[in-house]
Write a structure and sequence with these properties.
Structural class of chain B: alpha/beta
Largest sheet of chain B: 8 strands, mixed
Largest interface: B-C, 40 and 36 residues
Strand content of chain A: 25-35%
Helix content of chain A: 10-25%
Distance between the termini of chain A: 7 Å
Strand content of chain B: 15-25%
Strand order of the largest sheet of chain A: 1-4
Oligomer: heterotrimer
Number of domains of chain B: 2
Number of domains of chain A: 1
Shape of chain B: globular
Number of helices of chain A: 2
Number of helices of chain B: 13
Order of helices and strands of chain B: EHEHEHEHHEEHEHEHEEHEEHEEHEHEH
CATH topology of the largest domain in chain B: Rossmann fold
Order of helices and strands of chain A: EHEEHE
Radius of gyration of chain B: 20 Å
CATH architecture of chain A: 2-Layer Sandwich
CATH superfamily of the largest domain in chain B: Thiamin diphosphate (ThDP)-binding fold, Pyr/PP domains
Number of strands of chain A: 4
CATH class of chain A: Alpha Beta
Largest sheet of chain A: 2 strands, antiparallel
Distance between the termini of chain B: 46 Å
Number of strands of chain B: 16
CATH class of the largest domain in chain B: Alpha Beta
Chain lengths: 68, 350, 250
């Protein structure tokens, strides 16, 4: 199934990916990474991700990889 | 050895000839009197040598074009006169900070401000004390003849490459404009291999040329390394000339055009039986201070002659023994001291 | 499963120092993707500006030099004229390019230097802490226009793409925005085109990218994106302002 891999240590929690995801599959964690940011994670229990790459296109920290 | 022909050229043209002889095929510059024969010569000659001539939009741009050309590993140069050289100080500081070789010719005119187009040595401080922001030095050569305009340009490329440092030929309007016969001689030392150039990171890690150091201690270490380099330059590259100093009681110290005038005055003084000599720094950075110091052990008095209100005289005073008398005679603002004036000063202070 | 989106090879694995949401990351990615696409990383030299992206040499796998403030087009000129086999690009912010370096960019463009310039327009000085830039919009509050930019005292925001496009020396001039995926894809195409122009030796190419600076705008990322769409694009219209064909030069 299509999915994304988010490198949480590189994420700065800007949330640009959250807004563009058509299925709202990305959410921000409450915990922080080593940089001190609340990173984002994929929450896709029903495997809805289509691998559309919109999140990766927006990500300024280039920490999202997309598999299809 | 092939037979050598003497040719009659202007000082500014000799600079261009020396540069091409040294393998400099890239010239970037902006017009300013009294050095226009240099860009004119280069714009004529470089296309014939498969080189590039760019008339930049300003001296700010020309020095930065030199910075770019230097970074990719070629020999390049720019030339200007005092107000233009002031604009180049930013670039010179970056060149020094990034340890990039470059040759800059300053055909000095008089200032401050727009000043005038007549000759002067008013840029001595700016040239030898760094000139721009930060702790750095520019290797500075002070020619005194058209032949030396040619020779020093070649030498400047060699020194710049060997020490990865900007190098200036500190000439003046007289040297730039006068004609003298020269020999196009001189073996050009081979260009050193450059292991630091930006020529594309194929088959090697990417390289960076920078002068920004943000991590704690990095910039101090970088500055200390630069100072160590300047000490090496001071140790190995001091050049000077002396005439009749062996038995001299008074030594005239002068560089560039002033030294030519002073030499005539010294000869006339000798004819009158005065024990007078001439000391001429050929490199003004590194300054031949050690030699002046040892001379001052037996020379009672120095007379510094400059075409300014007293700049090199400060370096002379710094270097001679404490109780040595140092007198000064200078003409600023485009005035040129005559041999008679200098002789009068010699007689007055002898 | 196949990887359909990966970090370009022309970028290394460092964590970028840019603030959360900052547009430099995407702009860097687009440049790096162009280097990958044309397989030119090994013969490319980048010229970094003074500004937040001065540290871009920490992220790219190509050779990079740091230029004095605003002088990147002059440095790039010196490089390209002496080594025409290299691909030379300058990457500049709005203070760097449109203010202190205005003479350098205009004349490099006018000479038709065969270089590529990527211009980041976020209407503010980022590195120095949010001062007014030549591109700051009228009414925009910055640390040096605390009452909002006023044309009587501060003049008007400069439109660089429109300024450079009429110059005979330019071959490709475009303004793109990094506010949403579709625009990012268009910007990508534009950046590719700009490098292609240089590879084909047809002359000066310029891509202006509208980006966000949440930190100095005092907004969160989403509000910042909205500001590009509501305020910046109406003043800085997107599009390709000039595109000469290769044949024009033969």
């Amino acid at each position: 199934m299509p999915t994304i891999k988010i490198e949480s240590e590189k994420c700065k929690g800007c949330s640009l990916c959250i807004d563009v995801c058509p299925y709202e599959l990305i959410r921000q964690e409450r915990t922080i990474n080593h940089q001190g940011y609340q990173y984002v994670v994929l929450a896709d229990p029903e495997e809805q991700c289509t691998g559309c790459t919109l999140c990766a296109l927006m990500c300024p920290d280039i920490c999202i990889e997309v598999f299809k | 050895m092939t037979e050598q022909k003497r040719i009659l050229v202007k000082g500014n043209e000799a600079v261009g000839m020396g540069a091409i002889r040294a393998g400099c095929l890239y010239y970037f510059g902006y017009p300013i009197t009294p050095q226009n024969e240099i860009p004119e010569f280069m714009s004529r000659e470089l296309p014939r040598h498969d080189g590039e001539f760019v008339q930049a939009e300003s001296e700010l741009a020309s020095i930065n074009m030199v910075l770019g050309a230097s970074a990719v590993g070629v020999r390049s140069m720019t030339s200007s006169s005092s107000p233009g050289i002031s604009l180049m100080q930013e670039g010179l500081s970056y060149l020094a900070g990034q340890e990039l070789p470059a040759v800059v010719i300053n055909v000095v005119r008089c200032g401050p401000g727009l000043g005038g187009i007549a000759t002067s040595q008013g840029d001595y401080f700016q040239a030898v004390k760094g000139g721009g922001h930060g702790d750095y030095r520019v290797i500075t050569l002070a020619p005194a003849s058209v032949q030396e305009m040619y020779d020093h340009t070649i030498l400047a490329f060699d020194l710049a490459d060997r020490y990865r440092n900007p190098t200036m030929v500190l000439a003046d309007a007289v040297l730039g404009q006068m004609q003298e016969p020269i020999f196009e001689h001189g073996d050009v030392p081979p260009e050193p291999r450059k292991h630091w150039t930006l020529t594309g990171a194929a088959n090697r890690p990417a390289r960076h040329l920078k002068s920004l150091y943000l991590k704690e201690g990095e910039l101090e270490a970088h500055n200390r390394m630069l100072q160590e380099k300047y000490r090496e330059i001071q140790k190995h590259e001091v050049r000077f000339e002396e005439y009749d100093v062996d038995d001299a009681q008074l030594v005239v110290a002068a560089f560039g055009t002033s030294a030519r005038i002073a030499r005539t005055a010294v000869s006339r003084a000798r004819e009158k039986g005065l024990k007078v000599g001439l000391f001429r720094p050929v490199t003004v950075f590194p300054f031949p201070g050690m030699r002046l110091c040892s001379l001052s052990e037996r020379v009672k008095k120095f007379l510094v002659v400059e075409m300014n209100t007293g700049q090199m005289v400060e370096d002379v005073r710094l270097n001679v023994k404490g109780d040595t008398e140092v007198e000064f005679y200078g003409r600023p603002g485009g005035a040129i001291p005559t041999p008679v004036e200098v002789l009068t000063q010699i007689e007055r202070h002898y | 499963m196949k990887q359909v989106f990966a970090k370009p090879k022309a970028l290394n694995d460092e964590i970028m120092h840019y603030c959360p949401g900052c547009g430099h990351g995407v702009a860097h990615r687009l440049v790096a993707e162009a280097l990958d696409h044309y397989d030119i990383t090994g013969r490319t030299v980048g010229v970094a500006p003074v500004g937040c992206s001065v540290l871009m040499y920490d992220y790219f796998n190509c050779d990079i030099i740091e230029a004095p403030h605003g002088r990147a087009p002059a440095v790039a000129t010196g490089m390209k004229r002496s080594r025409s086999d290299l691909i030379v690009f300058a990457y500049q912010g709005d203070g760097d390019l449109a203010s202190i370096g205005l003479a350098e960019i205009v004349h490099a463009a006018n000479r038709g230097e065969n270089i590529t310039v990527i211009f980041i327009n976020n209407t503010v000085y980022g590195m120095t802490g949010g001062q007014m830039a030549p591109t700051t919009l009228l009414g925009q509050k910055t640390t040096t226009s605390p009452y909002g930019r006023n044309f009587n005292t501060d003049g008007y925001p400069i439109r660089m793409a429109e300024m450079l496009a009429p110059l005979e020396g330019t071959t490709y001039v475009a303004r793109m925005s990094l506010d949403k995926p579709v625009n990012i894809l268009k910007a990508r195409k534009s950046v590719f085109k700009a490098f292609e122009m240089q590879i084909n030796n047809v002359g000066f190419s310029f891509v202006e990218l509208l980006t966000i600076c949440p930190t100095n705008w005092g907004m969160d990322s989403m509000e910042s994106i909205k500001r590009i769409q509501d305020e910046m694009i109406p003043y800085f219209p997107l599009g390709v302002f000039k595109e000469k064909e290769t044949e024009d030069y033969i």
